[in-house]
Amino acid sequence: MSDRDDILADRLNVEPTIFKGCSSSELGIIVGVAALVWLPVSLLLAGLMGAVTMGFGLAGVGVGATELVTAGRFPRLKRGRPDGYYQQRIAIWLSEHGLRHSPFIRRSGSWDIGRTEYATLPYRDR
User: Fold this and answer.
1) Contact 70/77 with Cβ under 8 angstroms?
2) Buried b (16+ CB within 10 A) or exposed e, 10-38
3) 3-state SS record for the chain
């Protein structure tokens, strides 16, 4: 491989920013949560007015506006934090509320090796 081809995207340490300082996974989470909120609300409002299909357009506008506003504010929240900080905080919050198993060890206190007797070391003849 020549020196010019050595700069590859798979050698990056962190996920690159895509839009307004947010990575693609962060944007996916923002869009997913916004769609979960806007779709039922807009379909209900449009159904009350008698035009249910208009709710999908209203949801699309709501998701787009939420993405623009949230993506503009999210980098200010991330400032000064290490990479992946908020993904870890969300996983810990979900674990504390019993919604998901935590991938992190969150126990404080003394640890034990689980043995009740001391193990004898094998004698080696030198």
Assistant:
1) no
2) eeeeeeeeeeeebbeebbebbbeebbeeb
3) CCCHHHCCHHHCCCCCEEECCEEHHHHHHHHHHHHHHHHHHHHHHHHHHCCCCHHHHHHHHHHHHHHHHHHHHHHHHHCCCCCCHHHHHHHHHHHHCCCCCCCCCCCCCCCCCCCCCCCCCCCCCC
Mean pLDDT for 84-110 is 84
How large is the average pLDDT for residues 21-41? Answer: 90
Q: Encode pLDDT of 33-74 as tens digits.
A: 999 999 999 999 999 988 888 999 999 999 999 999 998 888
| Paired strand residues for 19 | 22
Please report the pLDDT score of residue 122 as a whole number.
74
CA distance 103 to 17: 25
Instruction: Return the bridge partners of 17, or none.
Output: 23
Task: For the chain, give every domain's residue range.
Answer: 23-96
